Fold this sequence. Notes:
Elements: H1 3-19, H2 25-41, H3 44-53, H4 66-79
The structure holds heme C (HEC).
Amino acid sequence: MTPDELGRMIYGTVCSACHGFEEGEQSRRALVHFAETVKERLTRPQVLELLETGRNQMPSFAPFSTMEKRAVVAFLFDETGATGSP
Ligand code: HEC
């Protein structure tokens, strides 16, 4: 499994329940909107930190390995087709 596939799989099984996924136009828009907002407001290290700590209703994903966390962050920043500054 490539890191891209890993990130997509983690997002699809874990994060998409709350943040949306690509299946279906509505859901895809939700995902792209989410990814764009994340890119505009947070850097990759900040997202990694957030996955570690959690925030309000956003759970902590501290038990994930570094590789898993990096993969899902890469999915959000690179693979969603969302535009926005790197
Ligand atoms: C139980 C629902 C839930 C799950 C599962 C979840 N999140 Fe969240 N997430 C939230 C909520 C709610 C917030 C808003 C937190 C707040 O109040 O600041 C959030 C916020 C975020 C933010 C910050 C967004 C911003 O613009 O500040 C990122 C990035 C994020 N989540 C990524 C992820 C990733 C990656 C996963 C999968 C590993 C994930 N989330 C899984 C509910 C969830």
